[in-house]
Write a structure and sequence with these properties.
By secondary structure, the protein is mainly alpha-helical. It has 18 helices and six strands. The protein binds protoporphyrin IX containing FE. Belongs to the cytochrome P450 family.
Length: about 400
């Protein structure tokens, strides 16, 4: 009998290698930085609401948000897979927005107060960039109203509000191209620690409470300021900032809620919600050597695309708050509204944030708009985190 000179383990290695190469050919590895994009409701629900343990949801989000952990030096639940940390963070955030901590009347009072501080001051320049002003007011309201139990109000300077707001924007935008700015982050943190001295790392609570809110306020103001009907609705809400007034559908008109739902449909601040998912090739060797046959794939739920889906009819790209009126809305349409995510990690402020943003919008429109001492000059297009070039608030002639 002829003895083989090639040992058995070499054959085994060859078989593994060939299977690996074959599986790579059949199931090619996606480029790591090009996420797979999901746009249908079924696929997005499958991703965000899959029946997995909360720990799996948290770890797939943490992996997808790793760049934010690095950019902002944070370890909050958005970048951390720890289940206990998630429970503590969401409990804390839920308590902040509870009516007991912050009744709507108190929020409206602080919003009016901050609008006066920033718009009615004697040294208000004849023209200010629109996004600067909205960021300044929103951040100040979040600090003084939502974080009332933690803030040292006397330490807040207007210039510092601008530095923090612009800094957060810049750090976020640059993180998308893996560019990090530790010196700028230090400047931002220096101010935040002065304002919120009892927090270990205050930016961890400022990001979820402020970063999406200012953009919703900015879009809503930009779409309402020259709309007489909308300004009338917001004025009524400021006078009576209750749940009933927010949803009031008087005289066949729309409600403020309809207006805000349309803002969030067309301009969701979180345009994509990403997860990193393990993908395995269907092979028996996957079971034996999972590390060779499992890849990490970034999958992005494209919320913006879903919310502009054809189920919203041919006018899907138009801003039309009346489409949310109960008499016009189909059963399917509200299911596609996922600006606050879906599944186990849905935003805890889903029912609070639209109404809170509307109260800020109402306080701003009380002082700015057609036939007011301050007016808005529109730019070319409605912006997002960036893109507000040409928009300004100026003294009326
Ligand atoms: C209009 C404003 C807001 C929008 C559009 C928004 C959007 C979102 C989205 C899309 C998620 C899910 C992220 C994911 O699945 O990975 C989320 C989660 C979260 N948001 Fe918001 N958010 C807003 C305002 C707020 C506010 C004001 C708070 C503070 C109370 C807040 C606290 C949270 C928390 C704690 C989570 C994590 C939930 C969890 O992990 O279980 N959000 N938000």
């Amino acid at each position: 009998m002829i003895q083989s000179t090639v040992p058995m383990y070499a054959y085994a290695f060859l078989v593994v290698l060939c299977t690996y190469c074959l599986s790579r050919r059949l199931y090619p590895s996606p480029k790591p930085h090009v996420p797979k994009r999901l746009t249908s409701l079924a696929d997005i629900e499958q991703l965000l609401s899959r029946p997995a343990h909360i720990a799996d949801h948290l770890s797939s989000r943490a992996l997808a948000n790793a760049r934010l952990a690095r950019a902002f030096n944070i370890n909050s639940t958005f970048v951390n897979s720890d289940v206990a940390a998630h429970g503590a963070f969401t409990k804390f955030a839920t308590a902040l927005i509870s009516p007991r901590n912050l009744p709507w009347g108190r929020l409206a009072y602080v919003a009016k107060q901050m609008v006066s501080v920033h718009l009615l001051c004697t040294n208000f320049p004849s023209i200010v960039a629109f996004d600067t002003l909205i960021r300044r007011i929103t951040l100040h309201v979040i600090l003084v109203a939502l974080l009332a139990g933690y803030v040292d109000e006397s330490a807040i300077e207007v210039d510092d509000l601008d530095l923090v707001a612009v800094g957060i924007n810049k750090i976020w935008t640059l993180s998308k191209s893996s560019t990090y700015c530790p010196e700028l982050l230090e400047e931002v943190n220096l101010r935040l620690r002065r304002w919120l001295p009892t927090y270990d790392n205050p930016i961890e609570i400022i990001i979820p409470t402020y970063e999406t809110m200012w953009r919703v306020v900015a879009v809503a103001v930009s779409l309402a300021y020259d709309d007489v009907e909308a300004t009338r609705l917001f004025a009524a809400l400021l006078k009576q900032p209750t749940n009933e007034q927010y949803r009031n559908l008087a005289d066949n008109s729309i409600s403020v809620d309809n207006f805000m739902q349309e803002v969030l449909r067309l301009y969701p601040p979180t345009r994509r919600i990403s997860r990193v998912m393990p993908v395995t090739s269907p092979s028996i060797l996957t079971k034996l050597l999972p590390q060779f046959f499992t890849r990490q794939l970034t999958v992005a739920a494209d919320i913006e695309a879903l919310q502009r889906d054809s189920c919203w009819a041919s006018s899907l790209g138009e801003f039309d708050p009346a489409r949310h009126h109960p008499q016009r809305c189909t059963r399917q349409q509200p299911r596609t509204l996922l600006a606050f995510g879906a599944g186990k990690l849905t935003c805890v402020a889903k029912n609070w944030a639209p109404q809170a943003a509307a109260i800020l919008v109402a306080a701003i429109l009380d002082q700015v708009g057609l036939e007011k001492d301050l007016n808005i000059k529109a730019g070319r297009a409605v912006g997002g985190r960036e893109g507000w070039e040409g928009w300004s608030v100026r003294k009326s002639l």
